[in-house]
Structures are given as structure tokens and as C-alpha cells.
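Deliverable D5.2: sample structural annotation.
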Amino acid sequence: MKPFRLLISLLLTFVAVFCFTPTAWAFCGFYVAKADAKLYNKASQVAIARSGDRTVLTMANDFQGEVKDFAIVVPVPTVLQKEQVRVAEPKIIERLDAFSAPRLVEYFDSDPCTPVYQERGGLPLPLAAPRSRVGSARSADNLGVTVEARFNVGEYDIVILSAKESGGLSTWLNRNGYKIPKGAKQLLQPYIRSSMKFFVAKVNLDKFEESGYQFLRPLQISYFSPKFMLPIRLGMINATTEQDLIVYILSPKGQAEITNYRTVKVPSGENIPLFVKDEFSDFYKSMFQTSYIKEDRKVAFLEYAWDMSNCDPCSAEPLSQEELKQAGVFWLDNDFGVNAPAPRRIRPPSPSSSVFISRLHVRYTRDKFPEDLMFHETSNRESFQGRYVLQHPFTGQVTCSAGREYKRSLSKRFEKEAQTLAKLTNWNIQDIRQKMKLVGQVSSSWWQNLFSWLGLT
């Protein structure tokens, strides 16, 4: 993998049982599957903890290959010092992914002849660093490139650069062993005009061997900046296909949105046929692609938004306070650590509402996303999740008129599920109906339909 393609990887790169009663028949259900980042071959993941002008950015990577070939160049708004950079544990990104992933839930209808108490159904509401000092910067061969800082963190050798023009920067990178692809000069220039710096990291092979880790750990940087943004343009240099980026935004306020592109919710809450339980990965990928095309390939999708103190249903336990701090949440317990001590103390929000997560999924190409992503925090604390429902029919004997009515209603319900699935995924409706027969959701013969209508099966 070429060095700048790695930026794609970095910037682009339990069962919880619960019950509720629907309008007519009661059933209980449980979480059965999730659509996490592993569904995608090159799903890059970034976690951003943001409050005010303080940001902690964690960049995961799915780099595969010789670690000696690993290198990244990340535009950053300010010169970073060593205390503002650390390596994080990969488990933190995995935990955020598992907690917020779109999910499949499974319910079972109760006996329609058994009286039930009606209850409310549906989704319940949910109960950086100080400004850097530029030390003795050194000029680099009259290329207009200045080495603002140089240090080692964990298994990474890191250099912070500033540049006057993109040609000099690309020449410096090439001379120092960072192979940059064609087109890099053009994309570097806008960042230089904006006076941004460049965070350059590569692997120190000796340190990596000493660490004992088999895979490269995420890099985490902390900084002050009024701009709430994520640079993605450099990651498109070598991109030949659509790129998937999943961003986990942690905020003390509420939902985060992208301001320079529309943010829309993924389809959610739909009942779909039972066979999808064994094809959930294919279902979600097809559903997402269908929605992506419908929105003209230029929107960000909200897949999850929730207070991190709870979840319903839970695909993973909420993160502990210690895990949240590892993810960069610096406002817990008045602790503005994580390499970014605050200049003043601020009263923390209540423990039940101090961290709100927004999971944004962006699939993009260079022509549809010509700008870096710009975010803003909102006070909207409305809960949302990509959630898809399997509803098993009651299969026992029925002995009442309500039960017979229930049996008669099933064929219409199953057909609606088939049509919903076809609309969500663009799958062939006849293929869907055939798969429903194979799992016994739709009767395959006329006499079975008749007996079901009579309440004899």
C-alpha cells in the first residue's frame, strides 16, 4: 500500500433482552446482529472528541503490509508538541464501533389469545492541547519547508512541518523517504494557503519490534482550533473506488452534523423477512448502497445518535468512564487531561448526559466530495439508531376469534415485509418471496394458505 493511500485508512481514516407490546400482540425480542465497520473492506474509522475549541482526534488504521512502508501525512491546524500526541489502544475504536453499529433485532409474537397489558413500544428516549510553542525551527534546503517539531511517540517517528508552497513540501517528503503519488502537489496547496501544518508519521522499526504489538496502534492528537473539520482530500489521491469513512463524534452537547454536505438518517425501524437473519451483512450493504445512490452520492448518513450512558437495544455495553477518557473525552470529572489541560475549569455536565455519540457514515468519491468535512455540534439530543426488525409469527394453536384474525393477517404482513425489503435493497421481489418460502415464512401451497386462513394450522 502506498504511503498516501494509508491516509484513506486513517482519515477516511451480550445480548440485551427487552420486551415491549405492539398495538395488537405482545412479543419479546433481542439483539441478534450488527452492521459494524468490518462489513467493509476499507472502512476507515476516526473518533473525534470535541468541546468548545478543543479537539482530540483518534485515527484508526487498517494497514496491511510491511510496517516499514507505513507513513501518513495529515494536515493539522497548529504545530503539535510531543505531549499532544499519543498512541491509543485499538480496542477503543472497536468499542465505539460495536456500541453504535446499526443492528438487527428479533421479536417473537405471543399467543394472540392470551390477554396482554398494552405498554408503550418503540425506541425509548435515553434516560486538547495548549497552543504550541514554536521552538528552534530549522529550514530545509531552501525548499520553504520548516521542521517545526520532531519527536518519537510509541512506535512512531513524528515530524511537524510547515511549508510555503506545495512543490517544496512534496520535494522534501520525497527526499526524506515519503513516496507521494502524482497529484499530491495540487491537493497540498489549499492546506498551505490556509496556514495549516503537516503531521507526518512513519514507523520506527526498532520501537515497533520492542512494543510487542502485531498491528499498528491508532494515533491520537489533541489540539485547539475554532475549526471543527476533518481533512479527507489527500486521501483521495490514490482512490480508484468509493471510500467508506465512519466518524464517531463524542460531544457534551448532542448530535453532530456535517455543515457543507447534507446529513440524513439511514432508513430505520422497518420490519423485514426472517431470512435476513442469515444475510444481514448483505442486506445492510445493499440497503446502504441503495440509499447512497438515491441521495445522489453526496450526503453523510447518520447511523446512530445516543447518550452514551445507556442504549436500547444494546449491541455492546456502554463504554466505561475510563474507556471514554481513552477515546479522548477530556471533560469528565473536570479532567481536561488527554494531553490537553484546560486553561480554566468548567463545571462538567451531569454523569447521565455528559457524552453524546453521533456515528456518521460517509461514502464518497473525489467528484462528489470536493471539500473537507466541516462539522458542528448541535443541542439536539434525540435518540436514533439504524435498527431493523425480524418479527416471528406465533406458531402454536389458536382457540379464539382474535387468534384466527391474527392468522389471517399474516399473509398481508409477510407481503409487506417482502416489498419493504425490495424497496430498501433493490433486490428482486420474486427472489425475496422464494427465500421467505424456504424459511417457512410464506406457505408454499394453496391448501396451507387455506388451512392457515381457517385457523387450522
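Annotation notes: Residues 259 and 375 are 6 Å apart (CA to CA). Confidence is low (pLDDT under 50) at residues 1-29, 118-139, 335-352, 444-453.
The annotation will be released with the project's public dataset once the embargo ends.
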